[in-house]
């Protein structure tokens, strides 16, 4: 049960406590009327490298890590909308849709005249990078996924995913309701019908997954309800409900997976069981990404933490520098 809940809430694991410990310049950049984002500029010389934090994190997540790259790159970091010191729009409409978040990054690049950077994103930032690479591949020189190539970053249409498929079906149903002409209505209905066979498979798999799961304790249930009702919880839900399906990433890619993740367990049967579960849940994502993105170098680091750039800094820096050098 704990493992199943962890899968659903992986984006939340990106939350980290950070301390402002590096020298940098801070600028607030407007991305749409009434919304400005915090942008950190760590300086450096060379081609631009832009860091994007995971859900719940800020650009300060990279305060120390970014300094590994200032010798050869001009390094920036962007704090996503919804998290201080960036502005916090209400979690309504499409304010936290993945393409909206991707557009925020593009707006920062345009405002600061950052041409064809490499984007390096942790965790949930994978969806923003994939959004940009899918729609505007010429705007970036490459992408680095730091345990970020999850379903929200790459989800080929031939691989079912309950979360992504539910959200896509919901959008198609909304298209039916908002259709005006008979032609629009017929097309929208056809799109819904086309999605139903895969969604039935998703539901059957969900039924199997949850068939024998024990129910939540009342106190745990109440805690989740309370957390979701907070401003931070509402923003996280809006972001998770803004996920989209991205099926093509046509630019150079480095994807680093913590696989299996470090569960804080000593060697033994309990860790072996946790590893087996982790490989079952996340292994297919790495395999699918490697098979579906031919431009990608995929690296699996066993027993690394989700914040892989912190737990395995030297190895990640080495892989990133080699990747960045190949782009020059």
Strand residue percentage: 15-25%
Number of helical segments? Answer: 10
Unreliable residue runs: 1-18
Shape: globular
> How many β-strand runs?
8
Average pLDDT reading:
92
Order of helices and strands: HEEEEHEHEHHHHEHEHH
Largest sheet: 8 strands, mixed
Strand order of the largest sheet: 1-2-4-3-5-6-7-8
What would you call the structural class? Answer: alpha/beta
Termini distance? Answer: 47 Å
Rg, rounded, reads: 20 Å
DSSP helix fraction: 40-55%
Describe what you observe in this structure.
- There is one protein chain.
- This protein is an alpha/beta fold.
- It has helices spanning 2-8, 98-111, 125-135, 162-178, 182-210, 218-228, 231-240, 269-292, 308-311, 313-327; strands at residues 25-32, 35-43, 47-52, 73-78, 118-122, 142-146, 253-258, 296-301.
- The protein is 43% helix and 16% strand.
- It has an eight-stranded mixed sheet, with helices on both faces.
């Amino acid at each position: 049960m704990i493992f199943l809940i962890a899968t659903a809430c992986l984006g939340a694991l990106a939350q980290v406590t950070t301390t402002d410990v590096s020298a940098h310049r801070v600028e607030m950049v407007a991305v749409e009327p009434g919304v400005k984002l915090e942008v950190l500029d760590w300086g450096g010389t060379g081609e631009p490298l832009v860091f994007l934090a995971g859900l719940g994190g800020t650009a300060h997540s990279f305060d120390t890590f970014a300094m590994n790259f200032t010798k050869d790159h001009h390094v920036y970091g962007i704090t996503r909308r919804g998290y201080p010191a960036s502005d916090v729009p209400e979690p309504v409409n499409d304010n936290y849709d993945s393409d909206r978040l991707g557009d925020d990054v593009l707006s920062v690049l345009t405002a600061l005249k950052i041409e064809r950077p490499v984007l390096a994103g942790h965790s949930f930032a994978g969806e923003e990078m994939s959004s940009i690479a899918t729609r505007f591949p010429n705007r970036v020189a490459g992408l680095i996924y730091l345990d970020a190539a999850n379903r929200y970053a790459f989800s080929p249409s031939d691989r079912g995913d309950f979360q992504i498929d539910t959200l896509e079906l919901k959008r198609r149903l909304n298209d039916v309701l908002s259709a005006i002409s008979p032609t629009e209505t017929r097309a929208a209905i056809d799109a819904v019908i086309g999605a139903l066979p895969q969604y039935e498979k998703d539901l059957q798999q969900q039924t199997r997954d949850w068939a024998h799961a024990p129910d939540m304790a009342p106190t745990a249930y109440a805690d989740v309800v309370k957390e979701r009702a907070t401003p931070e919880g509402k923003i996280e839900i809006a972001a998770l409900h803004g996920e989209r399906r991205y099926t093509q990433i046509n630019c150079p890619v480095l994807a680093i997976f913590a696989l299996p993740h470090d569960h804080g367990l000593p060697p033994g049967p309990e860790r072996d069981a946790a590893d087996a579960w982790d490989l079952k849940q996340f292994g297919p994502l790495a395999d699918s990404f490697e098979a579906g993105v031919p431009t990608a170098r995929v690296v699996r680091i066993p027993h690394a933490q989700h914040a892989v750039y912190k737990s395995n800094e030297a190895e990640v820096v080495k892989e990133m520098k080699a990747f960045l050098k190949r782009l020059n």
